[in-house]
Amino acid sequence: MEIYLKLYGSSKMLNDKEILSIELPNNSNIEKLRIALDKMISKKYLKNNLENLSKTAAFFSEADEVVDDNYKLKNKELISIIPPIGGG
Amino acid sequence: MTLHTAIVKAEVDNISLEKAKKFIISEKNGAETIFVGRVRNENSGKKVIAVTYDAHDQAALKSFQSICNDAKIKFDKRSSIFLEHAKGYIPVGEISILIAVSSGHRDEAFKICRYILEEIKHKAPIWKKEHYTEGNEQWLPGHSLRPKEEIK
Predict the structure, then answer these.
(1) DSSP labels for A37-55?
(2) Chain Cα centroid distance, residue A60
(3) Where are the beta strands (DSSP E) in B1-139?
(4) Which band of pLDDT confidence, cut at 50, 70 and 90, is reported for residue A48?
């Protein structure tokens, strides 16, 4: 299955575009997405201080609500990655 | 209307102190507090020239409204609140956040302003990337919205 990850904050270093397409095994959940992200970061992006991103990020569904690790992803679903925040 | 919240895109508009003052003025309220946050020219020994703010607009606005309504319930239901946060490239000296509050009395006005600022830092999905004089840039660390007990 394929999901679309909308990038915010430091996660924008993962791709030049605002949306990153990620291939996951069918019936994956957020936990599987974290594992896939962790692999991607450890292969390519360790220099960019992103090593903790897969653990510290929260995820929002299309309804802009935080979803937990058991949340079942749907094929072609758009999910927002929410790295640690710091406005003001 | 006693509540205004917005994410202001730098390429479209500026945050206006005058607009905030006009919004909160009320004959019912005898106290006003205004907090203006501006981009500083230094952070942790590095010379900063600008900050780029990123935001999840819908969720940030939702959190602004929830925080402001909580503040009203907690401190003064009749208060007026104006809250705007910048998004995009903001040079040193420009406004990044403005919180203006009018309330019945000074204590509540100060408390509401402080409460909103601290809550935003911990709840609103907004991020900042500093740009330095040397030409490099860095996303700043922040507060995770993932429950602490789930982070292993």
Answers:
(1) HHHHHHHHTGGGT-TTHHH
(2) 9
(3) 3-9, 31-38, 42-43, 46-55, 80-91, 95-103, 126-132, 137-139
(4) low
Please give the mean pLDDT across all residues of chain B: 96
d(CA B125, CA B144): 10
Chain A stretch 14-73, residues whose beta carbon is closer than 8 A to a beta carbon of chain B = 49, 55-58, 60, 64, 66, 68-69
Pair of tokens at residue B53: 């703010």
Instruction: Give me the residue label for tokens 């575009």.
Output: A17
The β-bridge relationship of strands A2-6 and A78-82 is parallel
The mean pLDDT value for A75-80 works out to: 97
Strand partners, B50: B91, B131
Counting one residue from chain A and one from chain B, the pairs whose CB atoms sit within 8 A come to 90
Question: Can you give the length of chain A in residues?
Answer: 88
Q: Which of A50, A54, A85 to mutate to test the interface with B (most CBs of B within 10 A)?
A: A85
Q: Does A86 touch chain B (CB under 8 A)?
A: yes
Distance CA B139, CA B120 (A): 18
Q: What is the pLDDT of residue A68?
A: 94
In the prediction, which pLDDT does A21 show?
96
pLDDT band at B148 (very low <50, low <70, confident <90, very high): confident
